[in-house]
Amino acid sequence: MSEPVTMMAAPMHLDFLFTPGVAQSKFLHGLEQGKFIGQRCPKCHKVYVPSRGSCPTDGVPCDEQVELGNRGTVTTYCVVNVPFAGQSIEIPYICGQILLDGANLSFMGLIQEIPTADIRMGLRVEAVWVDEADWGPTLASVKYFRPTGEPDAEFDTYKEYL
């Protein structure tokens, strides 16, 4: 009698093309220029970055572009301690949701230059970009976010984005 199969390696490769819409293209082209570009809803005036092209609350198109700065607030985070195949960063490391100043939608980013024991909600961070020659229409243009040294943001300023 043979042993039951409990694990099997099945290497695979997936090829795909991603075609961003008009709104995401503006965001990606902004990254290519070292800028975060969002869009403002004409009804509720919230700013979405990365932009989606329409307001998820009001369902109306967002046409006004808004350039945001490089600073923001960590709203939530995860300390990653589990290694994985192809990993290019030493564990433990921190992934966090970053709410850029002036934005009403957070996005995930790598957080470095801080011990994992010191990470916290409300931490003020800034983008660290790759060398300008390496900027492209991808979030990989942002190397990571690092603490600014500013006082933490008050909970009331980001609680609706958790």
Descriptive account of the structure:
The chain is mainly beta and 162 residues long. It has one domain (21-161). It has one helix and eight strands. It has one helix at residues 22-32, and strands spanning 36-40, 47-48, 64-68, 71-80, 93-100, 107-111, 124-129, 142-147. A five-stranded antiparallel sheet has the order 6-5-4-7-8, with no helix packed on it. Strands 2-1-3 form a three-stranded antiparallel sheet, with helices on one face. A hairpin with a 6-residue loop joins strand 1 and strand 2 (47-48).
Offer a quick outline of the entry.
By secondary structure, this protein is mainly beta.
Feature tags:
162 residues, mainly beta, five-stranded antiparallel β-sheet, three-stranded antiparallel β-sheet
List the helices and strands and how they pair.
Layout: H1 22-32, E1 36-40, E2 47-48, E3 64-68, E4 71-80, E5 93-100, E6 107-111, E7 124-129, E8 142-147
Antiparallel strand pairs: 1-2, 1-3, 4-5, 4-7, 5-6, 7-8
